[in-house]
Design brief:
Order of helices and strands: EHHEHEHEHHEEHH
CATH superfamily: Decaprenyl diphosphate synthase-like
Binding site for substrate: 19-23, 31, 35, 63-65, 67, 69, 186, 192-194
Protein name: Isoprenyl transferase
Strand order of the largest sheet: 3-4-2-1-5-6
Number of domains: 1
Helix content: 40-55%
Function: Catalyzes the condensation of isopentenyl diphosphate (IPP) with allylic pyrophosphates generating different type of terpenoids.
InterPro entries: UPP_synth-like, UPP_synth-like_CS, UPP_synth-like_sf
Family: Belongs to the UPP synthase family.
Bound molecules: farnesyl diphosphate
Number of helices: 8
Length: 247
């Protein structure tokens, strides 16, 4: 096992977990098996992130666009998430993991959102890895909700349009208080952001991995951290210092 260079660990890694369906197709299995295997890869990623000293791990679990999948697949995905919270919450809590949920909480029915919020509440005081679960998440929707709230404040005379700055937007996004992702990984060979953390990804490093998400393991996570450590981040300037050590 090749451990990453621990001097340049990204503070925040975000992952677009892609390829569950293709992983299953390749094996002549139903897509749902791919998603089930995907949850195992989630567990691996959480452990590896904690072990490496990553402070924030964001996982794109269910996008606001995923509702358009066949009803059976949506039911499967929501069921897997429900089971993950039921089965893994105690262990995550014991491991000092703090859970944060991002995404649109409006108009969501059923027991899943309350479960996710309870997981967030239960683990609020933990000080280890922050696991950010993007659920019913879409970046444009998140930004629109911020604009809506700012417009209301402007209309109420609480805010002048010229006073709106980037920090104000940061502080109103679902990710308020969470540093921008240093590294965004997407599995399955697709090279797109797919409406994920558009605002927050302004200076992120991107890593596209050909493997399907169910095959993602600790070694791949550590390899990704190694690749990150070798990158030069400039943030529009000329510095050659890697971000994680530059702060
Ligand atoms: C992409 O594969 C994956 C998803 C749409 C969902 C990811 C969800 C999980 C891994 C399980 C639940 C998550 C947590 C945090 C417990 P795809 O179906 O788009 O694959 P394809 O592109 O090959 O069809």
């Amino acid at each position: 096992m090749v451990k990453p260079d621990l001097t340049v660990i990204p503070k925040h890694v975000a992952i677009i977990m892609d390829g569950n369906g293709r992983w299953a197709n390749q094996r002549g299995l139903p897509r749902t098996i791919g998603h089930t295997k995907g949850v195992e890869a989630v567990r691996e990623a959480v452990k590896a992130a904690g072990e490496a000293g990553v402070e924030y791990l964001t996982l794109f679990a269910f996008s606001s666009e995923n509702w358009s999948r066949p009803e059976t697949e949506v039911t499967d995905l929501l069921g897997l998430m429900r089971r993950f919270i039921r089965r893994d919450l105690a262990e995550l809590h014991r491991s000092n993991v703090r859970i944060r949920i991002i995404g649109d909480r409006r108009n969501l029915q059923g027991d899943l959102l309350p479960m996710l919020l309870e997981a967030e509440e239960t683990t609020r005081a933990n000080s280890g890895l922050t696991l950010v679960i993007a659920f019913n998440y879409g970046s444009r929707n998140e930004i629109l909700r911020v604009i809506e709230r700012l417009a209301v404040d402007v209309a109420a005379g609480l805010l002048r349009p010229e006073d709106i700055d980037a920090a104000m937007i940061d502080g109103r996004l679902d990710t308020a208080g969470i540093p921008d992702p240093d590294l965004i990984i997407r599995t399955s060979g697709e090279e797109r952001l797919s409406n994920f953390l558009l605002w927050q990804a302004a200076y992120s490093e991107f890593l596209f991995i050909p493997d399907f998400w169910p095959d993602f393991d600790r070694q791949m996570f550590f390899d990704a951290l190694k690749t990150y450590a070798a990158r030069e981040r400039r943030f529009g300037g000329l510095t050659t210092k890697p971000a994680a050590v530059a702060g």
